[in-house]
Design a protein that fits this description.
single chain, alpha/beta, Rossmann fold, 2 domains, five-stranded parallel beta sheet, about 50% helix, globular
């Protein structure tokens, strides 16, 4: 079997260790010497790893609640910056809405942390072979919220930089603060905000927080 390179992105060491052991045979990797399975504990670490080695990565297993993710913004950001790398969501949450959001945002699969090891291996092999995996999960076709699905599709059109701006908007940052954190001119941030509003079909930052925050699992920022 051809050796593959996977990244397990999860902030829980025990989860990473369990997935690593389970996937060793699935990807044909010699874990002690092959280095085919890599790990990280935060979204920032994942971005750094992909920026350095994206051409070598065959699959990312991405924890929905990992630090820095802010719900599905992390998934959308990875797909915007590295569109050829399949991403499977890994989550302790497996309700129909979460599965539907993962699918609509472009995930290649969704693995609940309650899944058996056999199912995890089968799911990963399916995605590595070019398929998608949402089997054995709550039915997503029954979700009637067409407006939610439309917003998910619109979110998927944002660029990586626009998603980073959106993430900070949802965290309650002002344009000046966003400019400082992303090392951009404030006018550039305003330009990104205009594009975000246009692509999402919304009129204001308040509408963005109200509409997008719950979709991505982001909590509304607290007032000072």
């Amino acid at each position: 079997m051809m050796s593959r390179t996977l990244i397990i992105a999860d902030d829980h060491p025990m989860v990473r260790a369990a997935l690593r052991r389970t996937l060793a045979d699935a990807v044909g990797a010699d874990i002690p010497g092959g280095g085919a399975i890599e790990e990280c504990a935060t979204f920032d670490e994942l971005n750094c790893m992909l920026a350095a080695d994206s051409g070598e990565v065959d699959l990312v297993l991405l924890d929905l609640d990992m630090p820095g993710m802010l719900g599905f913004v992390g998934l959308l950001t990875i797909l915007a910056n590295w569109p050829t790398i399949p991403v499977m969501m890994v989550s302790a949450t497996e309700d129909r809405a979460s599965v539907a959001r993962a699918r609509d945002c472009g995930a290649s699969g969704f693995i609940p942390k309650s899944a058996s090891m056999e199912l995890v291996v089968e799911a990963v092999k399916t995605v590595l072979d070019g398929g998608v995996w949402f089997d054995g999960l709550p039915a997503v076709a029954a979700d009637p919220a067409e407006q939610t699905r439309d917003l998910s599709r619109r979110l998927a059109t944002l660029t990586g930089q626009q998603l980073r701006v959106l993430q900070l908007v949802l965290a309650g940052k002002l344009n000046k603060q966003i400019a400082g954190e992303l090392d951009l001119a404030e006018q550039t941030v305003k330009g990104h905000m205009s594009q975000i509003l246009r692509k999402l079909g919304l009129d204001s930052r308040t509408q963005v927080v109200i509409a997008v925050g719950p979709l991505l699992g982001a909590k509304a920022p607290q007032s000072a």
